[in-house]
Input
Amino acid sequence: METLKKIVSNQYFPAGAVLTAVVLFWAVGLLGGLSLLHNNQPPLTTLTWILFVYGAAVLTPLAGVVAALDLVRRWKRNRAAAEAGAVDALEAFEEPEAAYVEPAPGTEQATAPATTPSPAQQAAPVAPKKSAKQPGRKQAA
Output
């Protein structure tokens, strides 16, 4: 049961199912699936069957192409994501060179005193900058 759940919840399942149905439809058609036309049936039954087969014959190649393109798109996207994940994993393990240089013993580093903004600076509202008009374009009202 778990295997069936994995298959049905797979991202490739819908497009794969459509592509399989298209191939089966055309295989049955090539192997004599249109035998209804050879039998003596009422005209309305024959007409309905012909319209169904005509619609299926027109729509199944379209559905097959869309399903195949979707499968290829998903496969390429997953492959690119896997490659990007491998590159990110390699970059995470690399040590950055000269990230920190320890000061030589006996030398003092001057630190700037921390300054706090005055209450007037803290209370002053910051106005957003106006965007410049673009020449030749109308601005939205």
